[in-house]
Fold this sequence. Notes:
Elements: H1 2-10, H2 14-36, H3 38-67, H4 71-93, H5 95-122, E1 125-127, E2 130-132, H6 135-157, H7 159-206
Antiparallel strand pairs: 1-2
Helix pairs in contact: 2-3, 2-7, 3-4, 3-5, 3-7, 4-5, 5-6, 5-7, 6-7
Amino acid sequence: MKVEHAVADINPPKWTRALQIGIAAIAIGLAISSIIYPIYAVMATFTAAAIILLLLGVEQVVEGAFIRKHFRSKFVHIGLGGLVIILSSIVIAYPTASATLVVWLAAIALLVSGVASIISGLRVRRIGNRRIPGRASRALSIAAGGLAVALSASIMASPTFGVQLAGVVIGIALLVYGIRLFVTGISGLRHASISASSSSGTIALEK
């Protein structure tokens, strides 16, 4: 009996492993859909995030109107909640335009980062007879900066490409998560079955 309790403490129930495998299958299916239809994946992601923000905004307004007692606290909660509600409503109404705006801002940030990386790679400092950083590090910095600048220029020239790229990245992230969760669930089921068989054999020997 002690062995059975020890196994139960170490191994979670089988239904949790089955749930992991089910969630993994859904994640992999969504990942494949995101890779095939990246624009729809980005729109769905922005819409889901906007709905969550809308609920949070409503919660802030309700808390400020009925729970908070001080005027300043009421004003802050209602103001922030109203701003969140307005922004989330805009995103829900125009998900494609919102995604394009976010992609544009990301492209600008990527451009600045790429230029900074190129400048850092071109800048050389000497300490004695050594160059800081080394040639390999500078070459890598310049190459990474050039790639970032080229990617940001492509996104700015075609925002649709940026939205599609974001959808593909979302799909790849979901695919990696789904595969990892699937492997965890399968290995957990195998480990549970092996532990159960070994514990039953031990109990039989004790009898």
